[in-house]
Amino acid sequence: MRTWVGRFHRGIRQAWQDARIVAAAATLACCLFAAEQYNEPYRPQFHFSPLINWTNDPCGLVFAFGKYHLFFQYNPFANVWGHMSWGHAVSSDLVHWKQLPVAIPDDDKVAIFTGSSVVDAENTSGLCQQAGCIVSIYTGFTPPTATAPERQMQNLAYSQDGLTWTKYSGNPVLDLHRSDTRDPKVFWYAPARRWIMLIVQANEKKVRFFSSPNLREWQHLSDFGPRGATGGVWECPNLIRLPVQGKPGTNRWVLTVGLNPGGVAGGSGEQYFVGDFDGTTFRSGQESIHWVDYGRDCYCALTFNHEPKPEAPRMIGWMNNWQYAGDTPTAPWRGSMTLPRSLSLTEDGTLVQQPIEELRALRGEAFTYEGVSVSDLNRKLANWSHRGQTFEIEASLWLGEAKHLEWKLDGDEASVGFDATEGTLYVERKGSFNRAFPSKTKAPLQLGSKPLQLHIFVDRSSIEVFAQDGALALTNLVFPKSSSHGLALTSSGGPLKEIRVSMWALQSAWNGAKQ
Ligand code: FRU
């Protein structure tokens, strides 16, 4: 099993080999050849990925100074985990991103692990020159030495302009003298006019809650866990109030927790608990395990603080899995984020994720079909002039007598299917760069008399499936040959009753100037 300590040592060894000068030269070389940027094999065209080098978790998602800020676990010096720092990108629509210089770099003592950012609107911290500065709360990781074990403490850094950060001289602000307390999620809890922080005590599968009047002094409130899935360490907790569909004005609290390994599809995964939070304690009566995503590549997902429309929270995850993240065959970058998703809950407590509407701006040439015949659909589809690996499908499929249907995407290298006999929606992928990579990930689904509703995004090296209006999500990386763009529907067991399909070629988000 890969632990983060192992990652740290491997990363340090490799990263130090690449001197800072080499990294600076690489950055410069990249920027001189602007035309080639963001167009290498497998490069996502409408998902965020750094221009060069390694990324893992999204961090500190916040709307501040009129923009969405995405920070991310980043190695500024190499394409492997190490030198953990907060990379930084901004966007005005969550679709077009502009990468900025590293916000919070590591130093020779402390690495900058995952965390969150808040806007300190009332300058409760006393760190703002004027109210409204950004305060970022991250885990400071100090590696083990000959005389002391490694430590994970919670630290602050702050920014007056959303461009540069200063590390707080009074760090750490929370030190439990442990090596597994990390990933602070901090938010303003208005009813009690205080800040709330969640961290994990990873090895004990616990989320710990703290409160503070000023972001600098923290008091322990309560603990949650172990509960639900406990097959790996707990990481990246996130607590969010979500609107309940069809009940205007009704909200429920949802706690999401990363699990590594032990995820539903193998390796890293993410579970959620629906419950209540009273400003001190989170309680959930949930008995079964609920999974955020049934694919293999959605981890450490985080929602934005201070959303302009708090009633429609949005979430972004790391689109990868620690089982093979270090081996994914991409260069000069490695790692990317999921699509941003709008969140809500159904009345029965199912998490609903819908790709954000802003993505529609990328739609290009369209294809539509309404009919009953799979072969007729495929004939027409073969004439569709779009032959790329970046497209979107919206399909409603009434199964009728059919027992099985499958979309072949990327030729034979990946498919999305539904097996009525088994009651599963699945994504199957091939790939040989790591033994743990090829897989068939499955989500339970009983249709009854309803159609199968699919909303699928293919972006060169990823397939994201949102089914039944977002009640199920499956996110998976894929690494097809660039020549593989066969796209077709197959079915068996009997004729389908009705087929309604819309597809769009999607433009690259990197070519537009809008950020
Ligand atoms: C999750 C994680 C976090 C940690 C970070 C280090 O992917 O292990 O718990 O803060 O990555 O990069």
Structure explained in plain terms:
This protein is mainly beta and 515 residues long. It has three helices and 33 strands. The strands form seven sheets. A six-stranded antiparallel beta sheet has the order 23-33-24-29-30-31, covered by helices on one side. A five-stranded mixed beta sheet has the order 4-3-2-1-20, with no helix packed on it. Strands 13, 14, 15, 16 and 17 form a five-stranded antiparallel beta sheet that branches. The radius of gyration is 23 Å and the shape is globular. The two termini are 39 Å apart. The model is unreliable at 12-19 and 30-35 (pLDDT under 50). It binds beta-D-fructofuranose. Residues 4, 56-57, 73, 84, 113-114, 139, 182-183, 235-236, 300 line the site of beta-D-fructofuranose.
Order of strands across the main sheet: 23-33-24-29-30-31
Q: How many H/I helical runs?
A: 3
Biggest beta-sheet profile: 6 strands, antiparallel
Radius of gyration: 23 Å
Low-confidence stretches: 12-19, 30-35
Distance between the termini: 39 Å
Quote the average pLDDT.
93
- Assess the beta-strand content as a share of residues: 35-45%
The helical percent reads: under 10%
Structural class: mainly beta
